[in-house]
């Protein structure tokens, strides 16, 4: 008996090794919901398997359901083996027995030109009525995007708020001595490498149009700010002044960056016009001024300064001027991110040696801790202001996490073959 | 120059040969490696619809460095949360000052580093403070500012990988590079 167990143990160990070596190539998994709060009100929905998806390159229903569940606002119910599409007249009784409130069914059909026709219908199960229709025509490579658009449509129909699943995130991985900058769908899938370098890459930041990234690369043995056109791979150094150049943040019109330059000594904030011209200095205090983040209306700049003796978050007019302090509790508050709706400030605060993601309601100044991890870094908001992505160390590994703004639902994207860090959430794709 | 160009081409070719992790669309490879920094671009492009979904990969080459004064330490260490050059580092800094004054055509990069605790950008600014402390010490000894550049790696390039205090202490440093 003992021997049999041993053999099985050995076999499963060998299998695990095989699986691990297969994953040594950067194959990043999807963001998986790992932390679920109790007592949440989540809308029960059924996303039926799409007619024709068995023959299509992507399983649309499961992509849509995973998106909705990651938002924390939905609970996906098993659809079973019922065959439905957007033209069906559903039998309501089984869904009402499951307490489902909404039902989505649809179809995916390959067209003569190779593209796919994606259709779906959303029903209100309680009322027994159709609520809305979805239609999209996409290439095979865009089927995942179409599923994310569908999740956005369902989210909008059922919550009244636009969804943000049809967006992308960027992040950096380190595997051995190689650093890579990646662009992935908001669920972590479909990653593409935009840059590979033997030197560190940090602080990727999406342009408002979603076509360019600014980041800091150390390839010239010092931090230099680059702007990188994603479709063509064309890149140029936009801040390569004497000393260090870092922390790029795009203005809302995409025409300029705020960045930190040390060319005048210390770390100072500058505005850099992307059409050229001399950078304009914004901050005037000595010491450290860094991590600029524009308010959504572009009028203010949040940033970190040690002018009061410890790093705190301040706010000043975007053109420069007097700064007011924003964070008051604790002795180390860094990495400000303002939500696109202007309501929230996310940042990292050191509490008893642990670096934790915090959220401030900007109107009231009230602060909530969102995590119980100890090495959180670099939060950024989803375009609809309802989720945050950040980097942390979870169970001993560098991971990216998403969290709802109440901290209750968290999903994790783990690096499979190395470290994963520096996430930034980009805009919704047109 | 030609050698370097060929080497970087080979490097790109090698990478292209093993870059099977990500499936990329078929767009002709565009080589722009003939720049002094050894930066290379591969077009990997747009999707079938020409939608702005494409991401083109870029590969960056390794850049080299040269030698400064021989038989002299090139690293200066700092206390936690401190930017003050310790007394024990004075002889090291004086040696580099003498070398730079005797070799006016040589330039030194002062690379500040921090330990792993805290945010990347804030640590970059902290490392900058350390690098500037060393720059000031060298300036006070008569080294021309045009020979010096203070930069920071923040916490990106730790000298020791562990998280014990002994490792962290090795990482709070300024490296003097030529």
Structural commentary:
Chain A is mainly beta and 430 residues long. Helix content of chain A is 13%, strand content 44%. Chain A has helices at residues 2-22, 60-70, 92-97, 143-159, and strands at 32-35, 43-47, 74-77, 102-110, 116-124, 129-138, 167-175, 178-185, 192-197, 201-206, 212-217, 224-229, 235-239, 245-250, 256-261, 268-273, 280-281, 289-294, 300-305, 312-317, 324-325, 333-338, 344-351, 354-361, 367-369, 377-381, 387-394, 397-404, 410-414, 419-428. Chain A has a 5-stranded antiparallel sheet, covered by helices on one side. The longest helix of chain A is centred in the N-terminal third of the chain and has 21 residues, at 2-22. Chain A is globular and about 70 Å long. Chain B has 178 residues and is α+β, with helices and mostly antiparallel strands. The longest helix of chain B is centred in the C-terminal third of the chain and has 21 residues, at 120-140. The chains are: A mainly beta (430), B alpha+beta (178). At the A-B interface, strand 9 of A face strand 2, helix 3 and strand 5 of B.
Brief summary:
Helices cover 13% and strands 44% of the residues of chain A. Chain A is mainly β. Chain A folds into 2 domains: 35-159, 3-Layer(aba) Sandwich (Rossmann fold), CATH 3.40.50; 167-428, TolB, C-terminal domain (Neuraminidase), CATH 2.120.10.30.
